[in-house]
Fold these 4 entries.
Entry 1:
Amino acid sequence: MTHASSSSGDTDKPKLSAIEAELLQTVLDPVQSSPWINTETAAEYEERLLAAGAFLEISEAEAAQGWETLSTQLDGVWINSEDGLLVQLQQKFAERVPADMLAVIAEKAQQMANSGKPMMKQMIGCVQECLNDVAEADLRVIARPMALAMRGSSADEFVEATVQSVRQTKWNDLSAIEQAKLGLAAARYAIAQVNTLK
């Protein structure tokens, strides 16, 4: 009885078709089933790596020259950003604010814009050393409207309105408060320009 069931079990097994047999042979063949395995020998692989490395090698002189070129380019970017800010300030305020004060404002605006201080303190920090005759409390009163203005056109409008509110005359003929208004307007404008470049 046991013998009969075993023979009937053999006849119940499905036979493989030619395609299935070929597929099974391909899967079981270690060379064909792993085409991604590199058959290249270790020596050949090492030779190729050394050749590629030799191609990429540079001399110390070339490395020094490359570093010098990069440093010069980075210095140029930094100088151009500060010089560019000074040029913008001169275009907008040259007729109203002395050139030496604009240079100080451009330099200080670069520092203050990255300080994390409130806008009013940034503005005062840009002009304080140039306006020794004006108390800090007065500078705060003048700076407050421009500092609290939202970014964008309203801040520009406050700057423009402040400049227009100061009479057109020589710098030395202006009162200390009028000089402070123009200086703070230039500072607010400079800080806004630095922030747009971030």
Note: The CA atoms of residues 23 and 145 lie 81 Å apart.
Entry 2:
Amino acid sequence: MKINPNELTLKDKVVFINRVAKVVKGGKRFSFSALVVVGDGHGWVGMGNGKAAEVPDAIRKAVERAKKDLIKVPLKNGTIPFVVTGHYGAEEVLLKPAAEGAGVIAGGAVRAVMEVCGIQNIISKSLGSGNPNNVVRATLSGLQELRSPDEIHKMRRSESTEEVGYAGKPAA
């Protein structure tokens, strides 16, 4: 589902800034790479990478990219509806719903995603290298797998109404 990012009041949070060097004939040329997550605090979240000669330009580019691929996360009382694991490369992020008042129990990159998304109570464990880029992507992959209780109910109801014939195959 696509949404116009201009309709949302998005907050951005810089997760990681890296100074990268390109070796040229006269020495090294430095530029900056920024990893940013944006969200509205009500379930919309996205991530973006930007690279430029100056830090503010890199952050601006990253925010623009993050706004282009926002995803909607179903929230249930300030947490997620069920336990989910997100995977990206060798990174794995376990996300568990937490009771009211537990707060965000998460590492740096996962915490940034949760805060801009609007999740107040969650427990998470990052398993893998800890590379911020992969951690954020794994977290978003896990959040994309979430379905609201209403969606799950509709899917189950549509599956049970299909006619089933011999050996579990649909009747002709």
Note: The beta strands are 11-24, 27-39, 44-52, 71-72, 84-88, 91-97, 104-105, 122-127.
Entry 3:
Amino acid sequence: MSNSEMIRKRDAGEGRNLEHPPLPQPLPFEVYDNHTHLEFEDGIETLLPEESLAKALQVGVRGVIQVGTDLATSRWGVELAKTNPAVKAAIALHPNEAPRLAAKGDLEAHLEAISALAASPEVCAIGETGLDFFRTGEEGRDSQYLSFEAHISIAKENNLALQIHDRDAHAEVLEVLDRVGAPERTVLHCFSGDLEFAQQCIERGFYLSFAGTVTFKNAHGLREALGSAPLAQILVETDAPFLTPEPFRGRPNAPYLMPHTVRAMAAFLQADLDALCRQLASNTEAVYGSWPTTQRPEGAS
């Protein structure tokens, strides 16, 4: 079972409310969702990518990075970016894909295909790659390390940002990046560490990307990490259709729900919302480049 299939099965969600939440109040300045998965089917009210992006634009989410988790979704993201100016693509083999592919003897070929795809102008990042010791045991770690290091090389060879998936592997991720050398623009996607880990990442010049988890009532450590980070080193994402922010935790997520996360971040930081949005947008463009000019639909505030 591929990583995409595994996550779909995990989040099928018997008993979940699978209706998409209503549109939130628009943000005062347009921001970007720097990590989303538009290809996932997330329930009975599945949104087509075009619908999802149109809703996002209505509430001030100007563009998204569509993130691949295997070769198929990476290619799909590149094709979507070719036809939709709101989309940039990140491509990679998810850490949990590496052991599966290695067992079939396919890992090297898939890494070569990702390397070739990285030359596409629609690609702005390599990711999500990294280490995941939550779902993969000792027997799969060697292939995860091999894959992670290969992705780092691809990012540096193509002058692309790196989006890191790190689950239960904080120290190990830093060890690899220190040993082989991190790309100039390195992002900890869906940052999940504590204050100490945040400071270690910040010292290295990495960006911390916060998802809907930072809004959860029990996420005190994440908010401490957010509060410790220079504003110039934070990003925001949905990781949709997962990690839906409060007050809709448990329901399907989508880029248009990101205003809930941004507002929660502003409230915790005691920051002006407009100023924070401008900083987040500037940070995103510094990491991934600019998006074409877009215009909110008529009637959107």
Note: The domain at 26-259 is CATH 3.20.20.140 (TIM Barrel).
Entry 4:
Amino acid sequence: MNLLRQNKLTKEFDFFLSMPRDMRILLITNVIYALVIPVIDIFVGAYIMRSSNEPGLVAIYQLAAYTGIPITFMINGFLLNKIKIAHLYSFGMILSGISMVFMMTLGEMNALGVGFAGLIMGSSFGFFWANRDYLALNTTNDENRNYYYGLETFFYTLTFIIVPVLIGWFLISSGRWEWIGDIGNAYKIVTIIVFILTIISSIIIHRGKYENPKQKRFLYFKFDKLWNKMLVLAALKGLAQGYLVTAPAILIMRLVGDEGSLGTIQSLAGVLSAIVLYFLGRLSKPEHRIYIFSVGIFIFFLGTLVNGILFSASGVIVFVMCKVMFMPLHDIAYFPIQMKVIDSLSLKENRNQFAYIFNHEFGLYIGRFLGLGLFIFLIYYVSESFALKYSLIIIASVQLLAIPVAKGVIKASNNYITKAEPTLTPTQSSQKKTA
């Protein structure tokens, strides 16, 4: 039995080694940085709640972060003409550690300080995601993207299992250790560890041989009608993103307990999700993406309904578990859909692929701004409980519209890629052969 299990693991590792080298290095870099993401997504919001007891400040922080992303995408586009993409990518990862350091040194939690910390974090996300998306696009092809995003999301989900439990336990236990002093110092120790991990991941990415976009122009205002559909899908994705980062920390700190509960709930939900994700990425085909996408959205919708009806610790636990399952299922389908559209349209319109990655970010931002704007409005002008109960159901209901939109995008991109396939670039052709 052990020998059979060992053979299966060896087979999976050999399959990983059969992938292009630059794709493997990118995956390893992202796996290490994945240890940082749960801290940013979960515990920064909890830190703001603990320090200020103001849910509105959490939403302001996220809105500032999301505002910083498209601005940095544009700056990144110009810098790509002069600076190596690996340098910009690593700078983004390190900048996330700098943002947390700034947050921990704030003497008082107010909208100005929290907003500025959010802008720094948004800038780090901008450099990270702009270059990560371009590198993922150019080191994969449509045939191996399910595997790439499945494996990447599998490890991301594992970190959401392990890291929240360890950090939650550490933060809650810190009061018993004299050498730490209090939970504020414990947060600072976590920040130092995050900073070290960002440095390690930024070093590894330089082991790959990555090329900057050949075409310098990336600012366009008119696109093919297929891209306009993709932007609608991006806006719907962004609509939910702000809530998925902001709401869980507020709900858990209000209705469940403390950071220990926060970590445990995230981890329990991630166990099943991680197993499902790996096999989905390994075995699913491009034609399965719409089914994976739809299942994820229905799970999210169910979680928001339970939370709104119960609005208790039990409801929050169900919602967070559904959210942890929804996010990776959504991403494992969404990103390959987006990449395929970029593949086909960049060939058809003869444009820099980064032009589409940059423009896509504005579609996301519109959704994020509307979603978080609604949340902030409801908190300050209606009530906190109303915002936490019903705004999530509203957002999840709107998300159901993403299913027919995604179906239309997939169908149209299949037609476009068929016409463009004979004119694949040399880089894409070699990747296809390698895969």
Note: Residues 418-435 have pLDDT under 50 and may be disordered.
